[in-house]
Model the fold of this input.
Amino acid sequence: MARIHPSAIIDPKAQLHETVEVGPFSVIGPNVTIGARTRIGPHMVIDGHTTIGEDNVFHGSATIGGAPQDKKYKDEPTRLIIGNRNTVREYCTFNTGTVQDRGYTQLGDDNWIMAYVHIAHDCVVGNNTIIANSVQLAGHVIIGNWVILGGLSGIHQFIRVGDHAMTAFQTKLTQDVPPFVMAAGYPAGPAGINSEGLKRRGFSADAILNIKRAYKAIYRQGLSIDEAKVALDAQCHEAPADAQPHIQALRTFLDEATRGIIR
Done:
């Protein structure tokens, strides 16, 4: 049976696995589903059409599944989807999606979300990210896997941040950040590649060297974006097999960037 504190208020229609724990004074709405071994701390509000997976930890005083902060929202049954093994610290706010976009907001697996983080409507956050204190994601933002967002970073709506990218403390993002790239400043500019993070994740020395070469083609050779794409195509053809997927990821990101990339 779920371990629910007597002061918690759980709507009878909510679906909680028998191993879920709910702390004091938390409130859980009727359209909420929570998976096995997830722990809900004190003073939580979980509402909306929200699905939470297994082995998550919510430390308390957060609002999860609240309505979008979007004036176009008219009480449509949009969703928030949270995966497995995430840690969410105090005073975070995650909103559901809107029908004007994908209709859901999503947080993947194995993420570490620190205090006061806001994830707005229609955002998609991947896996294994670290989002530091007071980071604010505006609507429609896409964050890749293994991304680190430094404390107090602000992410403009519709921004994309590629896999293994990183932002420094108080970074202001108004354009996309390609995979592997470190961003810093107000507004943000490129600050090299996240080589230390790549080493920790098992990237080979050759792969990191080729990612650095790709970075130079984009940022250090005075090439236009179209010229950089041609250079990346040539480099990908010549690179070792284990480096080619990473160069191709950069090349594809340049094609898909809708707001331009930080330069």
